[in-house]
Amino acid sequence: MHDLFSPTTTVVLREAQTHGTWAPVPWEEGDRLRFEGLFAERAVTLDANSDSAVTLRVWDDQHNLVVDELTVAPGEEVSLKTLERNTDYQVEMQTEAEFACLRFH
Description:
The protein has 105 residues and is mainly beta.
């Protein structure tokens, strides 16, 4: 049942190399991450077919750094339980991947 109601946001990155600088995660809609509802796990998974790891950092609306340099390897899921539900966050990334697929759930 959880899989039917768990909201998921997928971000596909092509030619995403940031060359050591921080870049905003390119969302399809809007510019914020938001985990809505009771069934949101608050985690991020990097697809196993991704070229290399992605390092993330997350800011709240008051521009406080709430997650600092969280690295996700291909095929790995990492918890984001420190983030609150129904709250907007800005997410930045660093990667050397040509292709990466992030799933926030």
